[in-house]
Amino acid sequence: QRLCEELEYSELLDKAAQIPNALERMVYVAAFAVSAYASSYFRAGSKPFNPVLGETYECIREDKGFQFFSEQVSHHPPISACHAESGNFVFWQDVRWKNKFWGKSMEIVPIGTTHVTLPAFGDHFEWNKVTSCIHNILSGQRWIEHYGEIVIKNLNDDSCHCKVNFIKAKYWSTNAREIEGTVFDKDGKVVHRLFGKWHESIYCGGSSSSTCVWRANPMPKGYEQYYGFTQFALELNEMDPLSKSLLPPTDTRFRPDQRFLEEGNIEEAEIQKQRIEQLQRERRRVLEENCVEHQPRFFRKSSDDSWVSNGTYLELRKDLGFSKLDHPVLW
């Protein structure tokens, strides 16, 4: 679900898919890359559930026009892979990271690449993620910042590239959460400048005459009581009777610990969490005893060590195919 949150502003990719000019398309792809960080601003104080090996999640948003699915493909090291597609774009990535503890703070250093294709123009964009740091991890006053540089390239068109710098805050400075981006043409000439804050808005142009490219959605009422979830994030856990019948039993929404926590039953949620983790340890022990390696069901490892869709998830979903498969008991 956390990976799907990066698609909250997928309309930026829809917009890019309608722009003939490659330099302008890059502006909207860059805005999309930055918008993925917006929801983290209100979430520094909470930790997501650790997905278990084989856990899946899907999100079909007809209103936004995309289909998304993800799977936990590795436990040691933990790797989550996801894929989304619409009539305008295809999006995929796998997420892995290294943690660095610095006493009162923790750095999360991501490893891997995010990909987006725009079939209308034959574009294939790829970019890295920046470092995230949670400050004051031992207190209740946690806050998060992101810093480093995102480099966005179009693998099928070298007419431009983009660099977005997430500025590291200094305690005496007012530039917290600021970003500065630059789109360069083939010759290295600056053609567009981006500026703003990753949790609020992004502008293209100069300080005197600029256009707002992206603005974060307002937070829902009472978001402080709901773990800082955006409206989009709250909707990700919804499950109506129809979708319930279509989902594989490995879908995140069937996790009992998550449901108990939603209902405010923290004690039972912890009991279920421990039970689920024990089940995972037992499955791993059986695999090791039989010298068998876990095989992800919906993703395959490519030649560059990244994880990509094997094309089966959405096909199975079309004709109730999940009910015909044997699934591991995850919870």
Automatic annotation (TrEMBL):
Biological processes per GO annotation: intermembrane lipid transfer
Domain of life, source organism: Eukaryota
SUPFAM superfamilies from the UniProt entry: Oxysterol-binding protein-like (SSF144000)
UniProt cross-references to PROSITE patterns, sorted A to Z: OSBP
A Pfam family: Oxysterol_BP
Coiled-coil region(s): 262-289
Keywords: Coiled coil, Lipid transport, Lipid-binding, Transport
GO molecular function: cholesterol binding
InterPro entries, per database record: OSBP_sf, Oxysterol-bd, Oxysterol-bd_CS
Record bears the keyword Transmembrane: no
GO cellular component term, pick one: nuclear membrane
Family note: Belongs to the OSBP family.
The name this protein goes by in its record: Oxysterol-binding protein
